[in-house]
Amino acid sequence: MERVAIAAGLFSLLCVTGQVPAALAQTDSPNDESTTLPAGTKIELAVTAPVWARTAKPGDSLYSQVDFPVLAGKSIAIPAGTYVQGEILSIIRPSRFKSHAEIQVLFSTIIFANGYAVQLPALPSAATTFALGAASSSASIANTPPATVVMKLTLDVSFQNDLLLDNGSQLDMSLASPLLLDDRQLAAAIAASRPVDLGQFKSATLCRPTSGTPGTPGSPDTVIPGSPGTPSTTIPGGPGMPDIVIPGTPATPPTVIPGSPGTPGFPGSSCPAPPMVISSEPMVASPSSSTATAIPSHP
């Protein structure tokens, strides 16, 4: 009866907290059929659909793929190629005076290649905290990590960019609480998964270098031809009389009227550098609102 009571207590704790007790998580029994990724596990992602600077808004989906496998011990827990779906919570766009942007993203679902989908659990509510009972110390409740995965992305991007996140943009997601995965589903997912080739992502930007403004050609010189002149006329004289010479007219040189100079052209304006993720910082989000605050770092 005592063992049954202990088992029932552990099961109740698992249901209430959504976490696997350390003693159970470390058990390596042949009957284990699940894998637990601990809180703080980082998952490297590549964005698979662009986020446009002008039209992106809170509530839009963010799609990505795992670009490097996640290990649990020496085994693969999340294979490369696995999809991760999120939702944009807020956007702070760049300005003329600040070439940075911030996007808060709520990651909600991990979708494996075999169709196995894992919902990232919601934050513990006040009722859940109360359900822990007086037996749990305030310190243990305070140290219970939140489960909702919210990341603040800081981007190096100009207000001239047409994208905030391009295809293939790389970012990190950190698990805020332990994640339980079914081993049988994982085995099928690993067999069906294919690694992500980052070279397959083509930029979605519509920004292209312009040809610039061409210059105008100048006008050529205007040349007015001169006259060739006339030769002298000689009238022979009579006997004993000299010839009579009538002088001709001298030639006139051509007249040159200078043309107008052309105007110089202007080089094309180059597109701004593609947006780049500078940092991915984990946040805490409330399940009843879209507000989020930074998770304090611990030494």
Top keywords for this entry?
9-stranded antiparallel beta sheet, 299 residues, single chain, alpha+beta, disordered C terminus, 5 helices, two-stranded antiparallel sheet, disordered N terminus, Lipocalin
Describe the secondary structure blueprint for this structure.
Blueprint: H1 2-17, H2 22-25, E1 34-37, E2 42-47, E3 51-52, E4 61-66, E5 70-72, E6 75-78, E7 83-92, E8 100-111, E9 117-119, H3 126-131, H4 138-142, E10 149-156, E11 163-165, E12 170-174, E13 179-182, H5 183-192, E14 222-224, E15 233-235, E16 244-246, E17 255-257, E18 276-285, E19 292-294
Antiparallel strand pairs: 1-13, 2-4, 2-12, 3-11, 4-7, 5-6, 7-8, 8-9, 8-10, 10-18, 14-17, 15-16, 18-19
